[in-house]
Amino acid sequence: MNSNSNYYRIDRDEWKNFHQDSVPLLSEDKLKGLISLNDKLSLADVKDIYVPLVEVIDLYAKNYRNLRRMKSSFLGRSYEPAPLIIGVSGSVAVGKSTTARVLQKLLQKFYPDKKIGMITTDGFLYPNAELKRRGILNRKGFPESYDMGKLIQFLLDIKTVKPHVKYPIYSHRIYDVVPNAYNEIHQPDILIVEGINVLQLPTNEQIYASDFFDYSIYVDAAVENIENWYLERFEMLMDLAIDQPDNYYYSYAIGNRQEAIEMARGVWKTVNLPNLVNFIAPTMTRADLIIHKTDNHFIDYLNIKKY
Ligand SMILES: Nc1ncnc2c1ncn2[C@@H]1O[C@H](COP(=O)(O)OP(=O)(O)OP(=O)(O)O)[C@@H](O)[C@H]1O
Ligand SMILES: CC(C)(CO)[C@@H](O)C(=O)NCCC(=O)O
């Protein structure tokens, strides 16, 4: 970020001091409990990075409620509460779902009486058969591979507090949207939506998905690191598939390991990297907050939007 960018760059050592020690709901003991649920993150990350972040989100949540209340009163309409929606974006394999998951658990501790939901936009991909029919099977994750109309309808249903809103499920195990399977979400107070496309502008919709996001986070890292994390995850998925013949990764798991890794490297170079460079990274400066990770997923600084 150059000096005239619209962000304050805040190094980890400065950011961690923004934590207000007065917050008893996030005491050290409670945070330890959270770590056992999510061993990918260190307690230091939770304390230094995520606790101050929850407090920033709390500011946005209060402001959002107040503004909507005042707007309703100005318009002479009755106030209807609407959930706060948080978007988490970034490259394939940068760690969006890990970030979203820890944020959900922490927000749930911070607001014990509220319902904090989390979904991924992966379920809104067209199924493989439809991608094939459209000739874009090798563009999975690109803007045209998502049913954006369906995602927008989902967000609208959440904002208007419809009961039991269904959403489709994507499975890395079958490498496809699960046919006729849905999860349900019932009137959350806060919903975290994680996906590579949450900050993208649609090409042919009347409503923008970004209109529904009240706070947005972009997870950023050097492409060399993300490629390594992608390959590490590929190896992990292969290892998990070794005794599951119906698993997409099974044929790779039982074949030549080096060839499988080369294949994954090819997918990174021809699919996920061009998607990152052309369609995901350009949305970064729409985010309210950019979390920067370096080697070993260590968060070294954050960029927080000025205006
Ligand atoms: N803080 C962390 N510490 C250690 N490993 C991490 C951390 N965050 C993510 N990872 C690992 O990096 C890989 C990618 O993370 P994750 O699955 O969260 O990415 P993603 O951005 O949600 O990917 P996708 O878009 O493909 O769903 C995973 O193997 C995950 O275990
Ligand atoms: C499902 C997405 C698009 C996003 O999570 C990604 O994990 C993916 O499958 N990309 C397509 C190329 C690949 O990595 O196989």
Quickly list its features:
alpha/beta; PRK/URK; 307 residues; 9 strands; binds adenosine-5'-triphosphate; binds pantothenoic acid; 42% helix
Task: Tell me what the structure shows.
With 307 residues, this protein is an alpha/beta fold. The chain has one domain: 3-Layer(aba) Sandwich (Rossmann fold), CATH 3.40.50.300. It has helices at 12-15, 28-37, 43-75, 96-110, 128-133, 148-159, 223-241, 250-254, 257-280, and strands at residues 7-11, 84-90, 116-120, 165-171, 176-185, 190-194, 215-220, 289-293, 299-305. Helix 3 (43-75) packs across helix 4 (96-110) and helix 7 crosses helix 9 (257-280). Bound molecules: adenosine-5'-triphosphate and pantothenoic acid. Pantothenoic acid (PAU) binds at residues 92, 122, 140-141, 196, 267, 271-272. Pantothenoic acid (PAU) is lined by residues 92, 122, 140-141, 196, 267, 271-272.
Strand content: 15-25%
What ligands does this structure carry?
adenosine-5'-triphosphate, pantothenoic acid
Alpha-beta content class: alpha/beta
Main beta sheet: strand number and arrangement? 7 strands, mixed
CATH hierarchy, class: Alpha Beta
Query: What is the spatial order of strands in the main beta sheet?
Result: 1-9-8-7-2-6-3
Number of domains: 1
What is the N-to-C succession of helices and strands?
EHHHEHEHHEEEEHHHEE
Global morphology: globular
Helix content bin: 40-55%
Q: Uncertain runs with pLDDT below 50, 5 residues or more?
A: none
CATH topology title: Rossmann fold
The name of the CATH architecture is 3-Layer(aba) Sandwich
Let me know the number of strands: 9
The CATH homology group name: P-loop containing nucleotide triphosphate hydrolases
| Helical segment count | 9
Radius of gyration: 20 Å
Organism: Jeotgalibaca dankookensis
Pathway: Cofactor biosynthesis; coenzyme A biosynthesis; CoA from (R)-pantothenate: step 1/5
Keywords: ATP-binding, Coenzyme A biosynthesis, Cytoplasm, Kinase, Nucleotide-binding, Transferase
Family: Belongs to the prokaryotic pantothenate kinase family.
